[in-house]
């Protein structure tokens, strides 16, 4: 049995993992998800949310060797947590996520991408320092292969995304880079271009790269398949140590 901590992406919360957690438990694992500061049920004001606060929330949720899975923007959050304290992190798993480049912010990386599919949907609120996605476009961007129940849940639960954490560069050291790291690329992703994910996946060893034929939301589109993929990662000796 392995422990998993599942970390959501922009505007999402722990709620998005509600199908993956029982699927992992059915495979004999312990799985948990948390709301990052300012997301889901966490009411931290947006102007107090930082990349460091994301990292500290993740570290505070760890109580033993854990595989930490980061979806989308959470690639930065889980890496920042490893840089802060890698003690309880058995492996980092990037799920169609931004794998940080040293000295660059997530925003820098997004703008450097080969295409900008999210740009037309982003709505910035300068007064609060947050952005949201145009509700009329989220289905096509994030959930086009997901069932109506999942899309309804997302429409009800998506929250504004604090901008500051995504504009904070991250320094990379062996604290995070020496950990076992895996990348799962989603080949039908319409939010982060799959070809850009392929570039980011080069940061991990070839044997640690895999694909899923889904949208940006495999936790809704194929939770059991995703759980089996995470189970396979957990069974690798280095991740179980």
TrEMBL record:
Residues 4-228 form the AB hydrolase-1 domain. InterPro entries: AB_hydrolase_1, AB_hydrolase_fold, MES/HNL. Keywords: Hydrolase. The keyword Hydrolase applies. It comes from the Bacteria. One of its GO terms (molecular function) is methyl indole-3-acetate esterase activity. SUPFAM superfamilies: alpha/beta-Hydrolases. Gene3D superfamilies: alpha/beta hydrolase. Pfam families: Abhydrolase_6. The keyword NADP does not apply. This is Alpha/beta fold hydrolase. It comes from Pseudotabrizicola algicola.
């Amino acid at each position: 049995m392995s422990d998993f901590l599942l970390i959501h992406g922009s505007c999402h919360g722990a709620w998005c993992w509600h199908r993956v957690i029982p699927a992992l438990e059915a495979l004999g694992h312990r799985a948990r998800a948390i709301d990052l500061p300012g997301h889901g049920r966490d009411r931290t004001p947006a102007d107090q949310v930082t990349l460091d606060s994301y990292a500290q929330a993740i570290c505070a949720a760890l109580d033993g060797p854990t595989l930490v899975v980061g979806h989308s923007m959470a690639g930065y959050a889980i890496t920042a947590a490893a840089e802060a304290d890698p003690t309880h992190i058995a492996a980092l798993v990037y799920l169609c996520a931004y794998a940080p480049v040293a000295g660059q912010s997530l925003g820098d990386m997004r703008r450097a991408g080969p295409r900008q599919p999210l740009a037309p949907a982003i709505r910035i609120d300068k007064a609060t320092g947050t952005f949201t996605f145009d509700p009329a476009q989220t289905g096509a961007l994030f959930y086009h292969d997901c069932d109506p129940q999942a899309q309804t849940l997302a429409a009800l639960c998506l929250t504004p995304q604090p901008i500051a954490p995504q504009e904070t560069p991250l320094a990379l050291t062996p604290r995070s880079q020496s950990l076992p790291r895996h990348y799962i690329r989603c080949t039908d992703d319409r939010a982060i271009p799959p070809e850009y994910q392929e570039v980011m996946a080069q940061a991990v060893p070839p044997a640690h790269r895999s694909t899923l034929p889904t949208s940006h939301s495999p936790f809704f589109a194929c939770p059991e398949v995703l759980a089996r993929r995470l189970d396979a990662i957990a069974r690798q000796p280095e991740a179980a140590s």
